[in-house]
What does this fold into?
Amino acid sequence: MRSPAERPRSSPPAIKAAAGLASRRIAVDALVEVLAKRKPLDGALDRLGSGDKTAVLHQSDLAMSRLLAAVTLRRMGQLEDVLSHFIAKPLPDHAARAKIILLTGAAQLLFLGTAAHAAIDIAVTLCREQPESERLAGLTNAVLRKVATEGAALVADSDPARLNSQDWMWERWTAAYGEATARATALAHLNEAALDLTVKSDQRAWAARLGGIVLPTGSVRLKSKGRIDALDGFAEGAWWVQDAAAALPARLLGDVSGKRIADLCAAPGGKTAQLAAAGAFVTAVDDSAARLGTLKGNLGRLGLTTEIVQADAAKWTPPQPFDAVLLDAPCLATGTIRRHPDLPFLKRPEDLKALAGIQAKLLDHAARMVRPGGLLVYCTCSLEPEEGPEQVLRFLARAAGYTPAPVRPGEAGIPADWITADGFLRTLPCQLPMEPPELSGIDGFFAARLRAPG
It folds into this structure.
């Protein structure tokens, strides 16, 4: 994993110039993949970075590509608003790449502190590389010069929370949480998430060793970033990357030592690793061979063993019931926008109905895997009520005998304001304020703990 904050290494001027152009080109091409083809950003960046023909990019140059692409996506509304002041009429459909070049140029000028001459010259050069954007090189030069001199004042007068939120997401979050919380959540999305680790043991020692802090929930949050595989403890399998919120559902199962636990929709395996490290006999189920390959690799590095089953969790039937089942259901994942700024451009409101149906089927089937009196934890990394509390309340209305096992304040370090009136866990990106501010925040997560009849 690359750090956007890593500074470019020193290199000869010619190499710097080539790398600067190449890193911006990769960012532009990746954004074309996201915005025009609805492809995930990380996959596009990895593919484009590994295939770069300049052969001059350092790790930090590739990190610059990701930083520029991510900032452009996070600030898309503000960037479009600024550009609209200097472009008389919308660009034609065939000018999609030129528009993205304009957006990335404006992002550098307004949010990344890039020198005006460098940002503008590279943008014009990128326009001239392809016929469909070459004719707009002059416009790009003129518009970005205006942005360089007048754009900051326009940004200062804008509403970043509202402008940078998709209309349908803003309306849903306002209805679900109120405007103040929706606004705070939208502002949290403008900042990259901190790096959280789950460690096998001795969190305080590892926090000190890695220059981090131990959160109240037990996760270790790092104060600085770098290559994940270069950090102390990676090679020896002492820890794994996992947002503090994502680490909570497994902890709701309490002491799992010696218990048989099913982890459904398990890949890439963070929760599986938690349960296995705590002494559980885990069966990890996922229908994706590729994702299970990642899970196997992660568990191998960590020195943990589990039973792994490739199957549809909505159809797979175990030979005997489990003491507990953890279901991390597929969802819109709107709680992870801090980590995935491309997500608002990949998801559609109509996706929600189909996902809610899948979740209901998974939840009904998971309930049949739990022994009498055992526990079922359902969770999603979504902010949408249909994928969280509404889903669980509908399940309880039709599942005879299942009852809530409410989350208690202080349990697993969970504060009272993360617990709903129904006893469910609900975290929001705007929660967990810390100093310095860049350490603040947590993924949006929902989890409900339920007890089987008997």
Summary: The domain at 13-163 is CATH 1.10.940.10 (N-utilizing Substance Protein B Homolog; Chain A).
